[in-house]
Write a structure and sequence with these properties.
Number of strands: 5
Number of domains: 3
Distance between the termini: 53 Å
Helix content: 40-55%
Structural class: alpha+beta
Radius of gyration: 28 Å
CATH architecture of the largest domain: 2-Layer Sandwich
Length: 197
């Protein structure tokens, strides 16, 4: 859901900036006159001598005491919202995973250590060239994101089955987790074609 919202927002923002930049470019290069078309009456950039903020616009609110504090407050809120959005895009990486002990006491397991174990075991599978693992989610309900680079002879279906049945099952059992949802991405390793002389 978040990915779709981000794509829509980025698409709309990109479209708005494209239209604005294109309109300024059309006015700055005086392309309306050269190519013989007109811009809408409300468009402020009609020729090379037009400016973004004219003298009247700059001086209109000069004597109002509320104007500049309002402008600064709106820009500050916009900056905070954009920074929050930027930080929300980072994929959260788990530092620790909470493990329930047999005696009922909870202890924590280093998330990077668990990632390393899963990565090493996945890389040891026949046909896997490289593996990358990242734990996300909550400390009490982690989820694994696994990326495998497969050798040309590897069977992707068999790799997924072995990864699920062996590697991820071992990680789930060793960490004492009821479940470990996983997202696996497979990619084929690049290799040079064999040349026959």
């Amino acid at each position: 859901m978040r990915t779709k919202v981000n794509r829509v927002l980025l698409g709309l923002l990109g479209l708005a900036l494209f239209v604005l930049g294109g309109g300024v470019l059309l006015g700055g290069l005086d392309l309306q006159r050269r190519w013989g078309f007109g811009m809408p009456g409300w468009w402020p950039f009609r020729g090379p001598d037009d400016v973004v903020l004219g003298t009247e616009g700059r001086l209109r609110w000069r004597d109002e005491g509320w104007w500049w504090p309002t402008v600064i407050a709106v820009l500050a809120v916009l900056l905070v919202l954009l920074m929050w959005w930027l930080l929300a895009q980072r994929r959260h990486r788990l530092g620790q995973v909470v493990v329930d002990g047999e005696d009922g006491a909870a202890s924590s397991l280093d998330g990077r250590a668990l990632e390393g174990v899963i990565r090493e075991e996945a890389q040891a599978l026949d046909g896997v060239s490289r593996a990358a693992v990242r734990l996300a989610g909550r400390r009490t309900a982690p989820a694994a994101r696994v990326r495998l680079v497969l050798e040309p002879h590897a069977d992707p279906e068999r790799m997924l089955e072995r990864l699920s049945r062996e590697t991820l099952a071992h990680a789930r059992e060793s960490a004492g987790l009821d479940r470990l949802p996983s997202e696996v991405r497979l990619r084929e390793a690049r290799h040079r074609a064999d040349r026959v002389a």
